[in-house]
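Hey, sorry to bother you again with one of my protein questions. A protein chain has come my way and I'm curious about its shape. I'm sending you its amino acid sequence along with the backbone structure tokens. I owe you a coffee for this, so here goes:
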Amino acid sequence: MTRSALRAWHAVHKWTSLICTLFLLMLCVTGLPLIFHDEIEALLDEDHPMPVVADESARVSLDTVLDNALAARPGEVGVFMSFDEDRPVVNVTSAPRHDSPEREMTLMSLDHRTGAHVAAPADDGIMHVILQLHIDMFMGPWGMYLLGVMGLLFAAAIVSGVVLYAPFMRKLDFGTVRAGRSARIRWLDHHNLLGAATLAWALVVGLTGTINAFAPLITGYWQADQLAEMTADYAEAEPPAELASIDAAVRTAMAAAPGMRPQFVAFPGGAFSTDHHYAVFLQGGTPLTKRLLTPALVDARDGALTDMRPMPWYMQALLLSQPLHFGDYGGLPLKILWAVLDLFTIIVLGSGVYLWLARRRKGVDARLLAAHGALEPSR
């Protein structure tokens, strides 16, 4: 590599690293407890056992569940309905209007066996605060996009670091830490070693985080592309005055996809549906296929299935990125590995800041010594 090319790569590595480091440190620190969010929430949340019923296999109609939920919120409408995987619980989100902003929505949990209200998951605890800081820094979509740009800069810093590390390793064995040299040189060796050790993980987490940060844009493109194509015949139709049975809509979607179960339902008029359809999002039964949702559109006027198709590749990338970013695929062992690599990355980021400050201090000291020598009288 030529000297000019090496200088260019060094400039890319330095400036991309400096710009994104503080953001990345915040993301790594907040991401550490989020890796264990299930375990932490289980410790922090109060225990709310499900009531015992005579017939555990019994299920009331989803229409009954919806009616009971909306009875507690007079004047509101259903926006979403989701289903717990490990409990017979249906979660109903209501709002004053179908297109109400998230801050006006209310989440209620109901027992699918009886239709009675049960304790809803807390959404205002410390883990919620940490998650919101990690996702958008309490800045909404613009905060997400800013963190997405930082993720791209982080990927550029990783790639440029690899390019710079290759000629450096021609002179030293891999993993060499020059213990007898100055503190700055030792930290440089640790920085390079841990950077190389966490390379693949950091790139995966950085890129999946970037994809997650641009989720509103990706979802919006899916709505304008695939969803619009699936509902083209309804472009001139009037929205239904009354909605068909949601229970029948879910059953119709499940009948069209044997072996799949509903994860959530978007009501007509909401962000993930249209003015004319229930959008029933189905998931598979394996750890991988339960992440790859398949939307089924059911006419909200008569309950007929109008279209069902797999998500396009860009939506599948988004759906797979969300759990992979936090190591949610492999249980506790993978989470522990994610946490260790997260700590290593914090050290890499911190040592990078230290090396930059130490280099600047060294340059300042050299200039001060040179100036001091120039001011001394000649002898």
